[in-house]
Amino acid sequence: MKSSSSLSSLSSSSSSPSSALTGLQWKASARLTVENQGRRTATKIWALKALDDGTLISGDSMGNIQFWDTTAGTLLQSFEHNRSNADVLDLAVSYDQRKVMASGIDSRVVCIELNTQYSPGATATTGTATATPNKWILSTQQRHHTHDVHSLAIVYKTDPLGCHLLRESSKNTFGISTSPYEELLCSGGIDTKVSSYSVSNIRNYRPKVAYKYPSNAPVVLSRKLRVMSIMRPDKVDFYQLGGKRPTPDTAGSGVALDEEKAHLGSVCISSNYNLMSFDINDDGTLLAVSHAGGMLLFSVEFLDSYENGDGISRKIVKPYKIDIPPVINTPYSALKFCRNDPSLLVCAHCNGTINCVRIKKDSDEQNYSVSLEHAFDEYAIKSNFSNAYPITHLDISPDGRWLAAAKNTIGKGSVEIFALSPSYNHWWTLPCTEAPLSSMRWLGDGNTDPALATALNNGAFYLFDVEQRCLSEWSQDLGFPASPNLPRELTHRAECPDRIAFNSATPNKFIMGGQTWFCSIDLDAPVPRQSQPYPSDHFKAKRWGRMVVHERSKPSSTVDENSSTPSNWQKGVIKKTETLNSNFTICLRYSGVIFLDFLGKNEMVVVEQPWLGIVNALPDALERQRYGS
């Protein structure tokens, strides 16, 4: 590692006139050189971390993790990340600076610890040399990824109230740890997975996949035209879903769609940035997309075509770009068209501002006028901890009266409710929950007062009566927090619920699901103690009978008293003739679900992305020697 001999001087002036320092002059104080081991190319430094005691940690292209004494300019210790000499790309340091994690082109994540817990003369667990105090040792490694691990980050979990200081009341209510922070190491690479590790127990616990598929589905339905739109990195594809399929003979079965035959066309966008949000209105006439450079609006027409010469009419996509005023043309983290007012577009800016944009068609029926109708900018001030994050979810009630804006975080201000009709104003801030929000959806068909359903990443969910600014009667009867009173099979799933769908044919039911499952919830039926799997003989449900389920008190009448007891589930002695509560039945038929919603009454669309297809599209991983080969 070489510092430039002609390092540019950097100066900064204090903004306070009373400050004694008017400027800082920087200069190179040390020159540290990394060997290239006979290579013609110089060794590259990909990662640097500095500790409070003056130790500098580097990760280089030779696969080495090195500790330097910046005062003396000498190398203290060096560790080999992998035997292939593959690059070390990133480093992470724990809060107490006693653990250093490293990752790179080799898929392993290694942990190097300061061995102050060992006494002089003790033998380290990773080698035969005698460990001495204040030396670093390679303590453990995890290989949870299949390809390069490009990034590491340390995150800190706070209490469920979103506060940095815990109160005894919150400890008793939520049953959380007495420690104010819990450190998690997050690793991400080109295999699309984000894995989380417990920093304090990284040796003893396997990592958990925190994120594999997008939490916000890049799929939108235009129900009037029966068209499905899918956002790609540089384009939006359109697919014709065709007429309503006949009712299948067996429950739960569906009809697969031929992707090539159903493809209508694409709206390609030439830009240096990837698309990050989009939406299309319900009648399929307006398309809005956004990337880091700004927002784009298109009017879309679906025309009949006979280009194939077979006499069969097929629709093609014909887009027209709409000019946008500069005040609106900014990047947005979320976009949403109003269902009962297709000309109203709600845009959530990355800084928290929400713009309501009106798109009107001119009299000549070719041009559109775009104007900013209202801006909710008074809530963009980062006064709360949750306001530092961008808005990730937008949803408008079926009657067009309410707008819900949410963030994937915890604490006050994570979910805000705004009134859109008859006037624009902020209505309510939802109370804090015991876990961060993972999904939300308005329930209703537009003829009745809507209810807001919010799903949390611990599997629990709540229903809110927005008109009265309170929990719905159903959630109040269930109790708070809700997770202890819901089926264990729902609240202990590895994947959080990130999809909520509503069927207008059954107004008292809705669907909540994740990447490999979805659950049917009937609000009129009692809540069972255990959920039933569908299919009942699915291999993922074999463990359900062996799960250790503790008896729970029944805080309300919504808990089913006639459900099977945990002991019966564990022993597997439930009789087939016994009537079981089918509420909260979990469907395990699908995997890799990235989208789930209803196209019409009793007609649901499920979009899957098989994991094998993702793996086959990835580049080759680093070859490594396997034991026994």
Short structural description:
This protein is mainly beta and 629 residues long. The strands form ten sheets. It has a five-stranded mixed sheet, with no helix packed on it. The protein has a four-stranded antiparallel sheet with strand order 1-2-3-4, with no helix packed on it.
Give a structural overview.
This protein is mostly beta strands and 629 residues long. It has 6 helices and 39 strands. The strands form 10 sheets. The protein has a 5-stranded mixed β-sheet, with no helix packed on it. β23 (354-361) and β24 (368-376) form a beta hairpin. It starts with 44 loop residues before the first strand and ends in a 12-residue tail after the last helix. The model is unreliable at 1-18, 118-133, 160-179 and 548-578 (pLDDT under 50).
